[in-house]
Amino acid sequence: MGVIDQTEVPIKTGSIYPEPYASEMAGRSSLRLGDAGGLTQFGANLVILEPGAKSSLRHWHHNEDEFVMVTEGECTLVQDEGETRMLPGDCAAFPAGDQNGHHFINKTNAAARFLVIGTRKPHEKATYSDVDLEVELKDGTATFIHKDGTPYTGEKA
Length: 157
Description:
The structure is a single chain. Helices cover 3% and strands 43% of the residues. The protein has 157 residues and is mainly β. A six-stranded antiparallel sheet has the order 1-2-3-10-5-8. A four-stranded antiparallel sheet has the order 4-11-12-13, with no helix packed on it. A hairpin with a 2-residue loop joins β12 and β13. The chain is globular, with a radius of gyration of 15 Å. The relative contact order is 0.20. The mean pLDDT is 95.
């Protein structure tokens, strides 16, 4: 495949989250660069956060590693131990199974971008630290459940 022309990569907006959580992702978009390049063993996405937007619900992965590098602007990394300001060139790594949930928030008045690289396992589970929600991903299908394993039916958690 070689060089990927970012201007030709569709911008993905929205979220796979059920409501009320999907609405919390307003102002977040991404370019699926790895998909555009035909990669199948890991994902590489350029995430764009508008002012005030957040990357995701605070979460941790059971089976997949995740690596982030800020490429433009400023992001605030939120983890169990608090907040860390991240600038272009700053990196963070989240090993599979580490239960320290994380997400990024843009607390500035300018757009921010960061590159996310993560493994793609055939079966993955992610736990959302601050709400009663988990997702199971299997063969491209996402199933949301409560932390006790019961199905999530769209009620507010």
